[in-house]
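Design request, tokens follow.
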């Protein structure tokens, strides 16, 4: 993505402590890069060799992709399982001796809970030998903690634009990462399928297919090892690993627990009322299908107009 006039920069804050975070950064509810927070010895310790030695050989489920850009629409990646130490070795090398499909395939790990269908990812449970090396910032109450997730990827690997429903601190331990973000208010310009944007190539978007995308305003930052990205809930993010990199992200529940779907080990299901509203909308759209085309179009416009007048908040940043 070029640095054109309309691109925004994610603000950078140095030497952030809890007081500064809670008084200056968090209330704005826009992304911020936090530099100089003590995240523990992991920044120096976590070389590939160290991760290989200490991370153990527990099986991890990974994305394997023949190209750097993962494509959820054409599903150009496959899920495979490897021991953690073997995965780290492969993700850190450019050309593989052992591979599934090709010697330059890319790897991406998003760690899961013990039983991925019910358990929540927490590196303190799944990787206790490594968890001692990292200090989680104590910016929120322990009761709000939801999960801590390993994000480990090959150089160049790109994760599609998506949103999550919880507040998030993305702690970049090693490697650099380029992140492009969009405000939740750009939801109407991103051609969403569920939580993901169909616009995969942000550098060269297909504007014939995605004309509205030109209205979206990207905010960019490059995370250095040791940086933390504060990612408020609902902000879209697209992530490119510039190097082999290890990150851990911490999701926490900033809203009342009653808003969240409890059957959600990944922590990315829409809030309960959001899910229900979307289901009702699907039913309403099916009902419009019963009408002749000019009526369908007319009532569709009335619905758009009603939504614009009643729920869209003109005050939000
Ligand atoms: O850093 C990454 O690889 C992806 C991060 C992400 O999607 C998240 O923390 O929610
Ligand atoms: Fe995410």
């Amino acid at each position: 993505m070029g640095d054109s006039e309309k691109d925004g920069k994610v603000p950078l804050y140095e030497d952030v402590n809890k007081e500064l975070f809670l008084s200056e950064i968090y209330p704005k509810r826009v992304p911020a890069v936090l530099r100089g927070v003590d995240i523990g010895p992991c920044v120096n310790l976590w070389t590939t060799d160290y991760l290989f030695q200490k991370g153990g050989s527990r099986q991890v489920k990974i994305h394997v992709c023949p190209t750097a850009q993962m494509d959820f629409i054409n599903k150009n990646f496959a899920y495979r399982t490897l021991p953690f130490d073997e995965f780290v070795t492969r993700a850190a090398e450019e050309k593989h001796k052992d591979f599934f499909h090709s010697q330059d395939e890319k790897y991406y790990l998003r760690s899961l809970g013990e039983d991925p269908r019910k358990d929540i990812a927490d590196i303190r449970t799944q990787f206790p030998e490594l968890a001692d090396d990292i200090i989680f910032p104590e910016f929120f109450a322990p009761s709000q903690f939801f999960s801590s997730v390993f994000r480990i990827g090959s150089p160049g690997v790109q994760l599609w634009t998506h949103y999550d429903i919880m507040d998030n601190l993305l702690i970049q331990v090693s490697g650099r990462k380029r992140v492009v973000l969009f405000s939740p208010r750009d939801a109407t310009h991103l051609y969403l399928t569920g939580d993901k944007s169909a616009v995969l190539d942000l550098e060269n978007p297909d504007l014939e297919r995605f004309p509205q995308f030109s209205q979206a305003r990207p905010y960019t930052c490059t995370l250095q090892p040791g940086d933390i990205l504060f990612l408020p809930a609902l902000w879209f993010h697209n992530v490119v690993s510039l190097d082999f990199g290890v990150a851990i992200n911490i999701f926490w529940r900033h809203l009342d627990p009653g808003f969240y779907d409890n059957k959600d080990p990944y922590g990315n299901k829409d809030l309960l009322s959001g899910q229900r509203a979307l289901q009702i909308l699907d039913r309403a759209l099916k009902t419009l299908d019963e009408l002749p085309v000019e009526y369908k179009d007319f009532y569709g416009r009335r619905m758009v107009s009603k939504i614009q007048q009643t729920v869209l908040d003109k005050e939000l940043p």
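Comment from the thread starter after seeing the answer: thanks! The chain has a mean pLDDT of 93.
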